[in-house]
Queue: 4 jobs
Job 1
Amino acid sequence: QHLMANASSVDLAKLIDEMLDDWLRIAAEKKIDFGMQRDLSTMAGDPTLLRELIANLVDNALKYTPAGGQVTLRCERVADVVEIDVSDNGPGIPEHERERVFERFHRLPDAPATGSGLGLAIARETVGGHRGSIAIVGAADGEGTCVQVRLPAKPATASLASRSA
Ligand code: ATP
Ligand code: MG
C-alpha cells in the first residue's frame, strides 16, 4: 500500500458531465435509452481514477446491453456516502459469476463484444483505494445488471491509501 498521489476534492457531477456527450452519442448510435440522475457536490479522491471507474462501468453497460435497451447512471451523496449505481437491462451477470468478473481477464463465455477483461478489476482496485465497496446485484426488475459502488465522501484520515494497480 502507498499513499494516493493525487487525492483531492473531486466534483463528481462535473466529471460525469464531461463524459456525458460521449455516452449520449454511443447510446444514440445503439438506440439505447440513457438515463442519468446525479445530485451531489464533492468527495475526497483521485479524479483520474474516479473518472476511469465511472467510465468503465458505463462503458460496460453500453457495450453489453443490446440495442433498444436502457442504461441508467445514478450518482448521489447520502450523508457521508457517495452512491454510484450503473444499471442496465442487458443480459445480466449470473450470480455465480458476480465475484469472478472482478478478476483480471475474466470474461463471461458469451460476452458479445471485444474487451480485455480488465475494466472491473481496475474498478475494484480504485474502490479499494478509496475505502469503498463495489458489488454486482441483479437489476431491480430481475433482468440486467446493476453495479453498486459506495465510497466514503470524506477520507478517514488526511491521507488516502491506495493499492497499486
Ligand atoms: P475491458 O473493460 O477491459 O475492455 P471487459 O469489458 O470484457 O473488457 P470487464 O469490464 O472487467 O472487462 O468485465 C468483465 C466481464 O463481465 C465482461 O467481459 C462481461 O462478460 C461481464 N460484464 C461486465 N459488465 C457487464 C454488464 N453490464 N452486462 C453484462 N455483462 C457484463
Ligand atoms: Mg469493461
Job 2
Amino acid sequence: MNPAAEFSSIGSLLPDSMRLFVRDEVDSTNDEIRRLAMASAADGTVVLADKQTAGRGRRGAAWVCPPGQALAFSVLVRPSEPKALWPRLALAAGLAVAEGLEAHGVACGIKWPNDVWVDGKKICGVLVEAGNDFAIIGIGVNVNVPTFPEELSGSATSLLLETGEPQDRAGVLASILRRLEIRRHQIDADYARMLDAVRSRCVLTGQRISLHAADGPRVGFCEGIGAGGELLLSGPNGLERLLQADEVRILTDHS
Ligand code: BTN
C-alpha cells in the first residue's frame, strides 16, 4: 500500500490540534518540519515520511528506517511554556512513545533521557531540536522491522519482533500522537506528574552505569531521576545531578 493510502484514515484518531502530512520521501522529517516552521506552519503540524534519505539521530549518527516497516515522523511545536523548559520535551516525547506502544501490547522502559526500550533493546529514538520560536520533536519507531543488521541485532528490537504480529502503522502513530498531545503540555505545572510516569519506567534506576557528561566520562550508580528531570548519579564525586549526558550504558558484572 502506498503511504498516503495507508495513513489516509487516521484523521479521526488524531488529536484535533494536529495535522498530518505524509510524504513518500524527504531528506529528514526534522528538516522538512524546520522548513515548514520557517514558512509559518502551525503548532501541531506533523510530517511523516516513508523514506528518509538523510535521517539522523543524536550526536549526528545516521538513522535508517526501512520503507514501509518503521515510523519516521516529526512534530512541530510552538510551546507557550518558557524556552528554558523546552528541553523537557525530550522526556515528554520518550514517555509518550512508551505509553503509545504499551497500547499495542508491549511493556516499555525509558532509558533516560528519551530512548524507549523493550526487554533491554531499543525500539524508538527521539531527536528534539529547537528553532527560535519553535521546537521539533523527531521520532523514529521500529514497528514492523523483521530483522536488524548483525551489529544492531543485540541492541535493537521492533513491535513485530516483540508481539510476534505485524502492527498497523497508522494505529501506532495515532496512539503515540495522542499521548504526545497530553505529555507535551506537562513540561511546566504538571511536570512532577509527568516525571512520576517516567520514573516508573526508568530502566537505569538501581543500575551501575557509565556515561559521558559534558566534562568527561563517569561511572556510578543511578539513584533515579530528580525533580528537574535530571539523572541522579552517585559515584566517586558524590551525588551528581546531570541534565545532559551521552552514551549512557548499563554495566553488567562482566563489563
Ligand atoms: C536517536 O536515538 O539517535 C534519535 C533518532 C531519531 C530519529 C528520528 S526519525 C524521524 C526524525 N527525523 C530524523 O532525521 N530523525 C528523527
Job 3
Amino acid sequence: MSADLGFVHRYVPGEDESGPTLLLLHGTGGNEEDLVPLGETLAPGAAFLSPRGKVSEYGAPRFFRRLAEGVFDHEDLLFRTHELAEFVQAASEEYGFDASKVVAVGYSNGANVAASTILLHPGLLRAAVLFRAMVPFEPDLAPDLSGMPVFLAAGRMDRMIPPHNTQRLADILLEAGADVDLRWRDTGHPLTYEDVAEAKAWLSDVLPKLS
Ligand code: MLT
C-alpha cells in the first residue's frame, strides 16, 4: 500500500513492462486490496493499479459523493474524475507502465467513476470492463470514443441499478463510437462467476490487440 500520488493505492507490476495495466476500481465500502484477486483472475500477468476512493460515506470509501442512492453530486463527480485521471498519469510516470495501455475494471461505484472517466477523458483508457454500471452524467457533447472496446455486465434484477439506466449508458457509449459489448444476466447487484468468466474471455481477446 502506498499513499503517494494523492491516492492510497496498490500497484502490482506486470510480467511485461510494455504490457497492459488494469486500473481496478472498487465498489462502495471497498478498498485498494479488494479487486486485486479479480484482476489476477481476469488478466494474469498484467500490471494492476488499484486506488482507494477518497470520499468517505460514513466510513465507506467511494470514488465520488452521492446525495442519495443513484443520485450523484455532479460537481464532486467531475472533480473526482479529473483527480483520478491525474493520478493515473502520475502513476504511469512513477511506475513506468505504458500509459497508452490502461484498461479500467470497475465494479458498481468504481464502474461509474470509470464511465465518467471515459466520458471526460477520452483516450486515457484504452478499454474498460464495467460491472453493474450506470450513467454517471449525461454528457452535453458526445466524446469521440471511436473503436474503444467496452464490456458491460448488468443484472436484470439489480435493485441498485435500474436496467434502463445501464442500457442508457451503453447507448451513450455506442453513440460516441465505442465498441460496446453489453451482457445481461438474470442476477442482482453482486458479481457472479459467470460475469467474471465472460469478462476474462472478452479481455483475452481485447488485451493482445492493444499496441
Ligand atoms: C453509486 O453510488 O455509484 C451507485 O449507486 C453504486 C453504488 O452503490 O456504489
Job 4
Amino acid sequence: MMPEPRIDKISTHSFILPGFARAEDEALMTAIKQITAEAPLRQMSTPRGFKMAAQLSNCGDYGWVTDRQGYRYQQTDPDSGEPWPEMPALFQALAVRAAASCGFDDFAPDVCLINCYQPRAGMGLHQDKDERDFSAPIVSVSLGVPAIFLFGGLQRRDKPEHYLLQHGDVVVWGGDDRLRFHGIQAIKLSHHPLTGQYRYNLTFRRAF
Ligand code: MD3
Ligand code: FE
C-alpha cells in the first residue's frame, strides 16, 4: 500500500509535507543537472551590490533575477540573453500535486527558481513580493543536505520559528501566510549521497 502522505500544518495556510518529493529525487536531480548545464548556477548581486550566498538559476516562462537595477522576473537569462530552459513536466506536476494536497486548487506556476547552497551559505529574512499578485501559493522542494528554515511573521521584527527541512521535504504556503518573512540558516557541512555537500531548493511561483 502507498503510505498516507503526511501534512504538518504550521500555520493557517502553511504546510510541510515531509518526504513528499523523495520518490522522485533522482529524476529531480537529473533534471536540475540538465537545466543548469543550459542556464548555469551563479551568485547574483543584490541591488546594494552584495553577492547572494546561494547560487541560483531558473526554468519556466520567467526567471527571478537580481542585479544593480533591482529584483525582478524576466523571460531571459541575463548571462546568455536566451530564454530560461522549459519547466520539466515532472516539476510542474509535483508542484501542482503538492499545492492541491494543501487545498490550493489550479496552481499554475510559471517560474521555478533553483537555489543551490554550499556549506555556510544561507538566506537572510525576506518576503517574496516580486510577483504580480499574491493569490497563488508558493511551493518549495528541498533536496540534499538539511537546512533550518526560519518562519517569521508579517513584520520583520516578529520572532521566527525554526523548522528542519530535509531531503525530499516540500513546503507549501499561501493565503494569509503568503507574505511572511522567511529565511534559511547557514548550511552546516555535511554530505548527502545524491548532492554531495550541497542543498538544492526548488521554489515554484506564479509571477505573472
Ligand atoms: C516563505 N528560498 O528563494 S523556501 C527564496 O529554501 C527562498 O531556498 C528558501 O526563500 C530556500 O525566496 C526558502 C522555503 C519556505 C518555507 C516556508 C515559508 C519559504 C517560506 C513560509 C512563509 C514564507
Ligand atoms: Fe523566499
